[in-house]
Prior knowledge:
The structure holds two protein chains of two kinds. Chain A has helices at residues 2-19, 32-45, 58-67, 81-90, 119-127, 155-163, 180-189, 218-223, 245-255, 257-265; strands spanning 22-27, 50-53, 72-75, 94-109, 116-117, 146-150, 175-177, 193-198, 206-208, 210-211, 229-237, 269-270. Chain A is an alpha/beta fold. In chain A, helix 6 (155-163) links the parallel strand 6 and strand 7. Chain A is elongated and about 85 Å long. By secondary structure, chain B is mainly α. Chain B has one domain (47-290): MetI-like (MetI-like fold). Chain B has helices spanning 2-36, 45-50, 66-97, 100-114, 118-136, 147-171, 175-183, 188-199, 201-217, 220-225, 243-250, 259-290, and strands at residues 54-55, 62-63. Chain B has a two-stranded antiparallel ribbon with strand order 1-2. The longest helix of chain B has 35 residues, at 2-36.
Amino acid sequence: MKKTVIAIALATLSVVLAFGSTLVIKGSNTVYPVAQLWAEAFKALKPGVEISIEGAGSSTGIKALFNGQTDIANSSRWIKPSEIEQMNRDGKYFVPYIVAYDGIAIIVNRSLAIDNITLQQLYDIYSGKVTTWNQIDSSLPRVRIVPFSRDNASGTFEYFIEHVMKGDKLAPQVQQLASTRAEVEQVVQNNYAIGYIGMGYITGEVKALTVEGVEPTVANVNAGTYPVSRPLFMFVNATNGLPTGVVADFLRYALSPEGQAAVLTVGYVNAYGTK
Amino acid sequence: MRRKRVELSAKVLVTFAALLTSIIVFGIFYFLISDGVRVFGRVSPKDFLFSARWYPTYEDAEFGILALLAGTLSVTGLTLVIAIPLGFVCAIFLAEFSGRKSHDAIKYIFELMAGIPSVVLGSFGLKYVSRWLMEHFPLHVWTGLNVMNASLMLSILAMPYFVTLVEDALRAVPRDQKEASLALGANMTGTIFRILLPQARSGILNAIILGTNRVIGETMVVLMVAGGATMVPSTIFDPVRPLTSAIAGEMGEVELGSTHYFALFMIGVVLLAISTVFTLIAMKLKRSKGK
């Protein structure tokens, strides 16, 4: 009787030791939604693994990686020169995994006779330098352009400001809406509207423009030719070799066909095959 | 003896509840203000109140709330212009002209109206009213989400509230005054405008002020349909971003302890100040009515 109890206790203990591990993920707000999906699915696969995720920003994640406060640092940007210097000073080596791509589609009403837009034209529209459609293309009517944007809490907004606006400010008349769905709805209703949304949200109700002549497709984002897209990274500390254990398992899951299929559901583009 | 003890404990309980409520209210005031004023260490009060440039998340951030304030005032003002006359007509009808059946039916409709959640009104404005505005006023409406759309939706929200309060004020006018006027040969219209409305004046003003407070504080509707552009509107069809929608839209992602964070709290203080002024006016009116 006693022996059985001890055996059961030992068995429980070993199970806890084997599976009861924690995984800390910090960093980018943009990567956060997909990381959360992966974490949920991963927990279902390996019960006993505790995962904590924070999405305060890419820099916060990399800082936490230096301090050893996180296992994985999500980042929507490449590592900065100052961070490379710090790695040299501290004798540390971080490696990136590209886990997904974020592509931003420029959408207009289906009735508007325009198919392509350049980055310069986008800048001009959103900074308020250009206010009517005929200034973009003389065959278009002389009607006010109605630009829509996400509000400043959104990661898509941040990316747009950084890469299209080059840090410059949006014109006051740009309408900042609280959801992508509201933006799509307005572009459907308004013949002269323009908006930008995550590629995963493109529907047949609106027209997605080619940017600099390149179509916003998963293939073009994967090929790196679509200009308004960026890779999303997970950085890990590889000073003592590539990650093992639960960190490696998590990354393996994220890059698996199942994990990559989840990327599409939150509006990003998969980095690897989904089948 | 036993009754005394019960009474005493009831008294203690009631006093405690009252104290707790006031502590909570003043606690909210305190935390809001103490966090809010910290923005003035980094932004001058003049820039905060009188600059229309609200760019809180850029490298060279700017924190001027004038455009947001203009958004709140324009939406509230237009809502009052729509809801007050309509509400008046309904209230006068309910108080003076309706039979019992029609009174109950209309009351029931207003009760249903009062129960519509603001997020549902917002979705309705986003999907249908914005389309309707663009189709029917193509010369003036360049975007479906604008001051007008928000004011229409807010009117639906404020009307039941307003009608009930005005009707109560009209009903509170002593019956003999009205009957005396009619007995002297005045017709109903004259009686309403010369006797009823002047007599119910303070009650009506009170209704307007409470209704205004309700409209200023409303968040979901304006977040969804006011348009979200940080511009000072020049027509009623321009999009705006009222104070409440700036707080609701941005608070979720703001970094704790940043200038943006304190600025959002200061916007809360501004809203609180506006509504406190209105409440004080309403209280004063009530007191002068007692004289």
